């Protein structure tokens, strides 16, 4: 089969590799009908997340048709159409029973390695380093799905691939980011980042009843898309984020702040951003936490910081004293996808949201290596890429 394989920093290749096979009775094999390039994939593309190996299959947003079923996978049949969450969950451990699917205790087959890095293992993830199990990803013609009886979302008839594909990651990620804020009808919610997750977060915060949503970015097409949903926008290249948020909130600051950027934050005319880049170049810091610092500074006292943006390692110069003294609550983590599935499928089926709005570019797997560069460089107004194997 064909797949997109990681061969090093900035080196994704369209290659022929062996077809996957059933390895465990709970496995299924899925023929991929659609997959996407995620902002988190760019962290791998840019070489900022450790423990990638040459030849690893990329991608964790995918869906398709079940073509082979293991003997113990009782919930699925050949021919069924499913979206596959990026988090692999056993459905039986203590964390899964609590609904904390992204920290499943059983699916990371490199648990010992992850424990050395994080203190405890997290769930296995598709196409996302050997710290999370080294599982082959979904930017391929076929994928082996382990623990498939509990790691799948069945798709109702009548919904297109484009409508439901993002149930596997960015839609529930944006939804969880907003849910973590415990949004009240009087809240002003500020969201850093207008990429795919930021766009889903803007709409999720509005659907969850925020009085006002403010979105911060610098890419005109992304800011325009957020504005179409009803957000106030701030271009951080043209305006001071701190001053604008102060003015928009009568000096009180946003009640809730969401970091939909993660470890590759950019900033204009910022000393701390230059500091981060210098430390990152020499390996003294892995992530650029400009957005985290800014959120701590501007957030209203007793507010909430929600962090769906991915961080991979070590950050520096975090004003933790300000966070503590202001009484800020931090909520973060990889998405517990299956926790939100039922209500999000219903929102799509009822026409209250069509997640396909975010798609700007489509192509084949063969287009993937070039599409990675287009997405990373935000060329041609690129916000979200979908590939059709």
Q: Give average pLDDT, whole number.
A: 96
How would you describe the shape?
globular
First and last CA, distance: 10 Å
Count of DSSP E strands? 18
How much helicity do the residues have?
25-40%
Count of discrete alpha- or pi-helical segments spanning 4 or more residues: 13
Structural class: alpha/beta
Query: How large is the radius of gyration?
Result: 20 Å
Proportion in β-strands? 15-25%
| Low-confidence runs of at least 5 consecutive residues | none
Largest sheet: 7 strands, mixed
Which helices and strands, and how do they pair?
Layout: E1 2-6, E2 12-16, E3 28-37, H1 39-45, E4 56-57, E5 61-69, E6 81-84, E7 87-88, H2 94-97, H3 111-118, E8 124-125, E9 142-145, E10 153-154, H4 161-164, H5 170-179, E11 188-192, H6 196-207, E12 212-217, H7 220-228, E13 232-235, H8 241-248, E14 256-259, H9 271-281, H10 290-298, E15 304-307, H11 320-326, E16 329-332, H12 337-349, E17 361-363, H13 368-377, E18 385-387
Parallel strand pairs: 11-12, 11-14, 12-13, 14-15, 15-16, 17-18
Antiparallel strand pairs: 1-2, 1-4, 3-5, 3-9, 3-18, 5-6, 6-10, 7-8
